[in-house]
Amino acid sequence: MSKRYTLLKKDGKARRGQFETPHGTIQTPVFMNVGTLAAIKGAVSSMDLKEIGCQVELSNTYHLHLRPGDKVVKALGGLHEFMNWDRPILTDSGGFQVFSLAKMRKIKEEGVYFNSHIDGKKIFMGPEESMQIQSNLASTIAMAFDECIENPAPREYVERSVARTTRWLERCKDEMDRLNSQPDTINKEQMLFGINQGGVYEDIRIKHAQEIVKLDLDGYAIGGLAVGETHEEMYRVIDAVVPHLPEDKPIYLMGVGTPNNILEAVERGVDFFDCVLPARNGRHGNVFCGEGKLNLMNAKYELDTRPIDEGCQCPTCKNYTRAYIRHLFKAKEMLAMRLCVLHNLYFYNKLMADIRTAIDGGYFKEFKEKKLIEWQGKA
């Protein structure tokens, strides 16, 4: 396999790299902007994403399988063509959605049987099905199908689940190799990331990491965090796992993404992040800025003619005031959500650019400490 990830600089354990993909080079550390159904919630277009500095868009295998259907997307040329986005796309495997449908699922060795959250229709998804769906979507990076375990969970169950996830990963790799060799496959260079699981048990996590790196995949993710454990437990798991993952492959912390979490995880060697938080918060008037977080619904912003974040160069802050955006929310105008989501995603993408600059310059630790003081724990 050709070398795709290049480690450009280390500052402590923080890593500055670049990842070559069929759809362009990703500068890391990077935050992936979450577009579950091939769109960012909040009326944000693919053209907007370029303007606010998005490098990677993330879409959801499970949801796109249900609507409009992965075969429909394939018939329309794949996700890139479908949503008019020519930069990298990562698709998750559906494993987390299966986890979230706990009352509607049955896990077997062959895969998972569950019911659609839309109409109750019975669905089966296993490693091969997940790879087939993601191949139809033609994303840049496909995630392996795994079982996401809630925290806390009994050790015996975690051990059995992790062993099954390893077997599933081997099946994912075999199926992806097969799919990438098919003449009708849109993206014959689709990449595969494996997922490390093991709850909060460090020894299980380490053993699993050591097993999955033998498969020589394109990248590795740390999954099953931010699902019930404390931040301290999460950081402890990252500290334990990262040394056992390859230095020449990207490391992705799945679904974790407050600004504080990102700084702490970068300091521990993580490259990729995603989270629905910035878009979800924005849709409810909660915005990130240099002083932490603001709730624009508060009455004190009724006559506030400042932008959300003074000095911010996002399209929202360059053109609109806090008072106007608050009015839009009170009037239930859709523009309110759009402006706040644009700002929050810009804030995250800019944060990652600043992190990369700090690692390049050898001052990441000072940068992190300064940010945490500025935000005062509010972010």
UniProtKB/TrEMBL annotation:
<comment type="subunit">
    <text>Homodimer. Within each dimer, one monomer is responsible for RNA recognition and catalysis, while the other monomer binds to the replacement base PreQ1.</text>
</comment>
<comment type="function">
    <text>Catalyzes the base-exchange of a guanine (G) residue with the queuine precursor 7-aminomethyl-7-deazaguanine (PreQ1) at position 34 (anticodon wobble position) in tRNAs with GU(N) anticodons (tRNA-Asp, -Asn, -His and -Tyr). Catalysis occurs through a double-displacement mechanism. The nucleophile active site attacks the C1' of nucleotide 34 to detach the guanine base from the RNA, forming a covalent enzyme-RNA intermediate. The proton acceptor active site deprotonates the incoming PreQ1, allowing a nucleophilic attack on the C1' of the ribose to form the product.</text>
</comment>
<keyword id="KW-0671">Queuosine biosynthesis</keyword>
<feature type="binding site">
    <location>
        <position position="224"/>
    </location>
    <ligand>
        <name>substrate</name>
    </ligand>
</feature>
<feature type="binding site">
    <location>
        <position position="317"/>
    </location>
    <ligand>
        <name>Zn(2+)</name>
    </ligand>
</feature>
<dbReference type="GO" id="GO:0046872">
    <property type="term" value="F:metal ion binding"/>
</dbReference>
<comment type="similarity">
    <text>Belongs to the queuine tRNA-ribosyltransferase family.</text>
</comment>
<feature type="binding site">
    <location>
        <position position="343"/>
    </location>
    <ligand>
        <name>Zn(2+)</name>
    </ligand>
</feature>
<comment type="pathway">
    <text>tRNA modification; tRNA-queuosine biosynthesis.</text>
</comment>
<dbReference type="InterPro" id="IPR004803">
    <property type="entry name" value="TGT"/>
</dbReference>
<feature type="domain" description="tRNA-guanine(15) transglycosylase-like">
    <location>
        <begin position="13"/>
        <end position="373"/>
    </location>
</feature>
<keyword id="KW-0819">tRNA processing</keyword>
<feature type="binding site">
    <location>
        <position position="197"/>
    </location>
    <ligand>
        <name>substrate</name>
    </ligand>
</feature>
<protein>
    <recommendedName>
        <fullName>Queuine tRNA-ribosyltransferase</fullName>
        <ecNumber>2.4.2.29</ecNumber>
    </recommendedName>
</protein>
<dbReference type="Pfam" id="PF01702">
    <property type="entry name" value="TGT"/>
</dbReference>
<dbReference type="GO" id="GO:0008479">
    <property type="term" value="F:tRNA-guanosine(34) queuine transglycosylase activity"/>
</dbReference>
<feature type="region of interest" description="RNA binding">
    <location>
        <begin position="255"/>
        <end position="261"/>
    </location>
</feature>
<feature type="active site" description="Nucleophile">
    <location>
        <position position="274"/>
    </location>
</feature>
<feature type="active site" description="Proton acceptor">
    <location>
        <position position="92"/>
    </location>
</feature>
<keyword id="KW-0808">Transferase</keyword>
<feature type="binding site">
    <location>
        <position position="314"/>
    </location>
    <ligand>
        <name>Zn(2+)</name>
    </ligand>
</feature>
<keyword id="KW-0479">Metal-binding</keyword>
<dbReference type="InterPro" id="IPR002616">
    <property type="entry name" value="tRNA_ribo_trans-like"/>
</dbReference>
<keyword id="KW-0862">Zinc</keyword>
<feature type="binding site">
    <location>
        <position position="146"/>
    </location>
    <ligand>
        <name>substrate</name>
    </ligand>
</feature>
<dbReference type="GO" id="GO:0008616">
    <property type="term" value="P:tRNA queuosine(34) biosynthetic process"/>
</dbReference>
<feature type="binding site">
    <location>
        <begin position="92"/>
        <end position="96"/>
    </location>
    <ligand>
        <name>substrate</name>
    </ligand>
</feature>
<dbReference type="InterPro" id="IPR036511">
    <property type="entry name" value="TGT-like_sf"/>
</dbReference>
<dbReference type="InterPro" id="IPR050076">
    <property type="entry name" value="ArchSynthase1/Queuine_TRR"/>
</dbReference>
<feature type="binding site">
    <location>
        <position position="312"/>
    </location>
    <ligand>
        <name>Zn(2+)</name>
    </ligand>
</feature>
<keyword id="KW-0328">Glycosyltransferase</keyword>
<feature type="region of interest" description="RNA binding; important for wobble base 34 recognition">
    <location>
        <begin position="279"/>
        <end position="283"/>
    </location>
</feature>
<dbReference type="GO" id="GO:0005829">
    <property type="term" value="C:cytosol"/>
</dbReference>
